[in-house]
Amino acid sequence: MTGVMEFLKCLFSIALILSITEANAGNFHFREAPKFYNSPKCPSVHYTTTPAASSAKICSDNAVHVAMTLDASYLRGSMAAILSVLQHSSCPENMIFHFVASAAADTSHLNLTIANSFPYLQFNIYPFDDSPVAGLISTSIRAALDCPLNYARNYLADLLPKCVQKVVYLDSDLVLVDDISNLAATPLGNEAVLAAPEYCNANFTSYFTPTFWSNPSLSLTFANRKPCYFNTGVMVVDLERWRAGDYTTKIVEWMELQKRVRIYELGSLPPFLLVFAGNIAPVDHQWNQHGLGASCIGVERVNRGFDSMLTDLALWMLCGHLMIYYKRHILLILENFCN
Ligand SMILES: *[C@@H]1O[C@H](CO)[C@@H](O)[C@H](O)[C@H]1NC(C)=O
Ligand SMILES: *[C@@H]1O[C@H](CO)[C@@H](O)[C@H](O)[C@H]1NC(C)=O
Fold first, then answer.
1. What structural domains does the chain harbor?
2. Which ligand has an atom closest to residue 123 CA?
3. Ligand 2 in reach of 62 Cβ (< 6 A)
4. Region of poorest pLDDT, from 139-143, 286-290, 293-297
5. Long-range pairs of 288-294 with CB within 8 A, sequence gap ≥ 24
6. Ligand 2 centroid to residue 157 C-alpha, Å
7. Does the keyword Iron feature in the UniProt annotation (predicted)?
8. How far is residue 66 CA from its own chain's centroid?
9. 54 lines ligand 1 (CB under 6 A)
């Protein structure tokens, strides 16, 4: 019985925390992150303050380029992701962030927020005109996947300066816990355009509709390939090879076809699979812990009964830790909660 009472007390305090965070959800304030310094072994990128030289720095091969999308509603996730990348990098001063934001977004606010929290960060914001993409998106089974910014990863080769040869693309709902230069150094071999975590046990058939599989002129696209599902949220992309092969157009062509014939149900992933599955280089699975590593036994969704009231909130018990998510971002981890 005491257990039940304790649990109810816990639930009550959770409800309190949640109502506070809910109220503040639209108006975040972020603290300033400390400066992160290079270790002595880091290669040098060109440091000068003249405008010409700053573009030389962007073009330096020794820089690690990271691309992410940025929008006001997911800002909290992006901030956590950026901090986690810097914290675990041995050469944080050599990192250059390329943020893609909707052209309709308040870019100066985003710019200011990033610059205030990360005053030492090298970054650029690229406005992404999402109207052409919006016209190509057919509604998927998950509304969150229909946001045009989800498709920005297909346009990196055009958006980023031509001198950027390689970029690590990261979704904005993740936390990195290792040195990103190791991820960026994932070998691409002689041909691969990108590397991503591949899962050959996933049922590849299920990513496309029966219409697709029953039409040989479509499904033959996978002939001579061993296609596997891969996660497009953690990718190392060779932008030179991408540009040379004009892969942006190839992906757009599949999206145009999808507008006429429904060949898949999910959002931005299937066109990537159509173009690249079977031809990518693998990223070590340790870089991609689904559910932020919540793979240990004892994971339990706590707020199931409240789902209709708290659609954006999720509470998970993970091995005695309570994890509070808001819109898929971890707000709070209460360790040894209620023990
Ligand atoms: C962000 O702010 C900096 C400094 O004020 C400015 O130089 C830069 O052009 C701004 N970038 C964007 C995309 O607004
Ligand atoms: C894979 O998915 C397809 C379509 O969703 C289904 O028909 C098939 O039985 C599944 N195969 C396996 C091995 O689960």
1. 60-288 (3.90.550.10), 291-339 (no CATH)
2. 1
3. no
4. 293-297
5. 288/197, 288/231, 288/233, 288/234, 292/174, 292/175, 292/323, 292/330, 294/318, 294/323
6. 35
7. no
8. 11
9. no
Return d(Cα 339, Cα 325) in angstroms, integer.
20
Name the DSSP letter for residue 47: -
| Residue 325 CA to ligand 1 centre (angstroms) | 31
User: Per residue in 75-116, pLDDT tens?
Assistant: 888 999 999 999 999 999 999 999 999 999 999 999 999 999
Instruction: Return the bridge partners of 329, or none.
Output: 326
pLDDT of 221-274, one tens digit each?
A: 999 999 999 999 999 999 999 999 999 999 999 999 998 999 998 888 999 999
Ligand 2 binding pocket mutation candidate from 206, 209, 214 (most atoms within 8 A of CB): 206
Confirm or reject: Cβ of 13 under 6 Å from ligand 2.
no
Is residue 205 in contact with ligand 2, taking CB distance under 6 Å? yes
Burial zone of 265 (CB within 10 Å; 0-12 exposed, 13-18 middle, 19+ buried): middle
pTM assigned to the model? 0.79
Selection from 261, 165, 265, 267 nearest residue 215 by Cα: 261
What pLDDT is stored for residue 137 in this prediction?
Answer: 79
Q: Nearest 5°: phi and psi at 10?
A: -60, -45
Tally of residues, the chain: 339
Residue 153: left (phi > 0), alpha (psi -120 to 50), or beta?
alpha
Q: What is the dihedral of CA 255, 74, 63, 44, to 10 degrees?
A: 180
Alpha helices in 60-122 (DSSP H): 75-87, 107-117
Higher-pLDDT residue of 298 and 269 is: 269
Counting ligand 2 atoms within 8 A of each CB, the residue from 199, 201, 205, 212 with the most, and so the one to mutate, is: 205
Nearest residue by C-alpha to atom 11 in ligand 2? 203
